[in-house]
Amino acid sequence: MTTPTNSVDFSLVLASSVHDMKNSIGMLVASLESFIEDCPPANEKQAKHFNTLHYEASRINAELVQLLTIYRMQNGHLPLRVDQHYVIDVLEDQLARNHSLLDSRNIHPRLECDDNLEWAFDADLIGSVVQNVIVNCSRYTRNELLVSAKVENDFLRIFVADDGTGYPPSMLEAPTSSVSGSGVNEGSTHLGLYFAEEIARLHKQKNRVGYIRLENGAPLGGGCFNLMLP
Amino acid sequence: MGEINFSKLRFLIADDYSNFRFTVSAMLRNLGIGQVDMAINGADVLDKCQRHTYDVILCDYDLGAGKNGQQVLEELRFRKLLPRKSLFILISADATKDVVMAAYDCEPDDYLMKPVTTKMLEQRIVRLLHQRQVLGRAYNALELEDHRRAIAILGHLASSEHRHSRTAQKMLGELFLAEGEYQRAEALYTRVLQLRPLDWARLGLARVKHHLGQLDVAGDWLEKIVQENPLYLPAYDVLANNWERLGEARRVQMTVQRSVEISPKSILRQKRLGQVAERNGDLNTSLQALRSTVRLGELSCHACAEDVFHFARVAAASVEQRLYPAEALLAEVTEAIRVAKERFRLPKEQTTRADLLTARILAQGGKGERARLLIREAETLLNTKQDVPLEVHLERIQALQALGEKTQAESLLQDLLQRYENDQDALEKLDALLSEPVSETNRALLAAVNREGIELYNQARFDEAIDCFEKVRHIFPRHVGVHLNIVQALIGKLRAGHKDAHTIKDTEKALATIGSLIGPTHSQYARFQRLQSMAAASMAS
CATH assignment of B443-540? Predict the structure, then answer.
């Protein structure tokens, strides 16, 4: 066995470089948005390029945020801050955050949520879960997207639905089982779902724990992502 | 609700990156905001806020060199440059725990994580402005310190069901507590808690119990809150106060320590930890906390010269107790003192006090010549000036003790005892340097503790007896009787079969301390020798 003389904690190095990357990408997305605003695409082809740029940058950004959050979760550095929030505020924030992405892809999001619906949760974490789902949906939906929330059986159900082709059967059965690697070859690690499930599970109330559920069909005919919070 | 007239609003954007400033200011202008100012660093924000009142301040956490966003917010409040109705929004790209905790800890009106898109920012701002409009009359009343009117307005807002009733309830609870209206606070928090177990309401209720003197109930609740939500910092502060009132200095320290681990950037908690740990005789923890206090103080409005003195004092004591070699701390203390002299423009007697502290450490490090020089310089001041504060004299005596000038130290001590014979406060301070306390309070305290400790010892409750004597050991470090009692209780423990390494080490350490305090002529020397052989026998058997 060899003993490394200068052993560095690789996960720590990775986390700090992911942090840098995330900030860079954040700047990139912001610059890109103001650029598109200043010079709107002149033709179909340009619009398509802008689209790709914007979508991929948003995706990297979302993925890096996830990575960092999972890293912190595993190291016990993730501050969970549960407070009472108006659900509509959090959902509106996420749609606003992705406004330009959705706009560029010609997707018309709908928000259905009672103005006065309040719930206790960590708004930043739940916000980033919803954000990831929205970015993901923007890729698979045709042109509809519904973000909604209501109370069911004493759980807050936040759901994001699209009119795309829906989730593949393997994911419906065990959404997060493939996170460890089998999905890598297909270009998807399902990291997002793992992330969502972990965040949901951090939310506890008495003996009930949050969870996620994937469905196809209702209400828009495509996939439907459900986040259930006690 | 009336529409908000954006054209009348004035905003300030603070970020060291021009990119962000320009993007946001373009967004605000699109929104129709009348005036948008920019600041490039913390000093700039403070300067602009001194000259204008802003409706909204958007401030990045990281502002380059100088103060960060949290320190800016603290200082704005501290210098009363931020009226209640000004909204302060903190934005940060750094999601590390320390930064997030520090950001929440200073309670901005809103806290956003980068990347922030303009659309999202716009939404948040509009939402906050609406809230401000609804709560505006209450803010005005608070600004005028008219609490009765604020309570009336908030009471109305809190009882009707609408978007901002929760915020109104929170503010109302704070006001009830501030006004000592505990019954009304209790009723309010109980009502909120019937719907959901929200942390702020649980904390509010615990605070009510604390103020009503139901300290055990309050303590139980607070422990439960921090157990379920270990990151809820305000609960630790109240819990520490609760232990303080119960007289449990150790528990105060443990509680403050936990909160400091969660949020190490809080200068006020570090300061408190430094104080309480010193009181408990935990010089190591105290030194670390005071070192952080001094470092955090570089850019904080909560810093003062006393922090540096305190750090230097505890450093000197740590060196005397052989926790650290003098060389390890000398440079650090000297530098902290140099900076403090400049920054706080210390008057002559305070710089003298600082020099004496340095001399104390120098003397311990074998640099007697330089120490003597500093002491001599200080003496020219002390001998000519009449109204030098007692603290400076005490430092001189300790510096002399460190040099081994026992006779001179003793005669100065006697002079001071005479001069302050009618000043109980001063006598209490002198007690720390004496082998027997002279102030009435400390004499009574010592007598009571000895009574209690001996009673516990007689009941063979050795651990409790040790804890009891320990409470006063740090207040009277030169009191031989207290040390002897501790040794006696430790021997009791050894004889009862608790021969763990810890107890043995404590016993040896206590005996060594006594050995350094007394010689064969001391009246308690015989008892010391007796205990020494008893200890040896019970450790060996």
Answer: 1.25.40.10
